[in-house]
Write a structure and sequence with these properties.
The protein has 175 residues and is mostly helical. It is 72% helix and 3% strand. The model has no long low-confidence stretch (mean pLDDT 90).
């Protein structure tokens, strides 16, 4: 029950940040898709970096066990294309569509219905996918530190430094 409360609190906090960061707005979504407004990219990259630091700290303190899902190129590529097509057609990604609906934008409801239908279709065809697409390019349970053969505490600061340079460049270009 405690984990559910933590999930609810962090979900509310994340939704608040989505709204305050203005990434729920259609013009920001469209700007990201057209590579003309990097607000969403900056928000997502910041979230990934904070999560990366938090997860590795918790892992090193022995509070969590890192459970890495197998990297599968077939599923990732096809899933990414479907995700991108849905985002491009709707103008919202899954998280922002829920936030937009919370703000009263009813157009986001179509995306949420589409996600539920897509999840149901995926569940129905999963047995077939498991023996076909999900076997293409199976690289196993890998992480970037493992691939590079470096400590995660070398990778994390390098990623943060790279992100800061990218953020600076975005600001310089007015993105």
């Amino acid at each position: 029950m405690k984990v559910l409360i933590y999930g609810l609190v962090t979900g509310i906090f994340f939704g608040f940040l989505l709204q305050k960061g203005r990434v729920l707005r259609y013009d920001k979504q469209l700007g990201a898709l057209r590579l003309m407004d990097m607000t969403i990219v900056k928000f997502m990259l910041s979230t990934v970096l904070v999560g990366m630091v938090g997860i590795y700290l918790l892992k090193d303190m022995g509070l969590i066990k890192l459970s890495v899902k197998s990297t599968n190129l077939g599923g990732n590529i096809i899933g990414g294309l479907l995700f991108g097509a849905g985002w491009g057609l709707l103008g919202y990604c899954p998280g922002t569509s829920a936030g937009a609906l919370g703000e009263g934008r009813w157009d986001a409801l179509w995306g949420i219905i589409g996600m539920l239908v897509g999840a149901a279709i995926f569940a129905e065809v999963y047995p077939t996918l498991k023996t076909t697409i999900l076997t293409w390019g199976n690289l196993g349970e890998i992480t970037l530190p493992q691939v590079l053969g470096l400590s995660h505490w070398i990778i994390v600061p390098a990623m943060i430094a790279g992100a800061l340079v990218l953020f600076w460049w975005f600001e310089k270009k007015g993105l």
